[in-house]
Amino acid sequence: MALSIPNSLVEATRRVEYNFRNFTTHYAILIFYIFFLSIFGNSSCMVILINVVFVCFLVYLNYQHPMVLFNCRDDIIDILAFLGAFTIWAMIFVFDICLNLWVSFWIASALAGLHALLWETEAPTTPAASDAAV
């Protein structure tokens, strides 16, 4: 497994599909890391982001005892979605870092796409018709 340029469009498509399917978590971590670096100069925004990540971590660890918000029992996905939406709203509209996030998103997406294209994998191939007869 190494970096190499694909020989054809079919191979490039296969690599991108395979790598996006298998490295999704890594690409998400890359995107969030670049988001973090893009807001490094805004200290109040970083403090809020770190606190929200800490709360999400606590919600994840404390899932055995579900939270009750607004007199109804919420699922962990609902709570994390609310916290994520609130964080995005606060970061974009309150701290006015929309341009920073857009630029960092496109840079991270380009890096992830470039990795998916160039990372040569040993993707499983479909067996040939002669192998199926054996």
Automatic annotation (TrEMBL):
One GO-annotated biological process of the protein: vesicle-mediated transport
Keywords: Membrane, Transmembrane, Transmembrane helix, Transport
Subcellular location: Endomembrane system; Membrane
Record keyword Transmembrane present: yes
Entry superkingdom: Eukaryota
Transmembrane parts of this sequence: 20-40, 75-95, 101-119
Main location: membrane
Pfam family, one: PRA1
Gene Ontology CC entries for this record: endoplasmic reticulum; Golgi apparatus; membrane
Entry membrane topology: Multi-pass membrane protein
Purpose: May be involved in both secretory and endocytic intracellular trafficking in the endosomal/prevacuolar compartments.
Family as reported in the entry's similarity comment: Belongs to the PRA1 family.
Name of this chain's protein: PRA1 family protein
Organism whose genome encodes this protein: Ziziphus jujuba var. spinosa
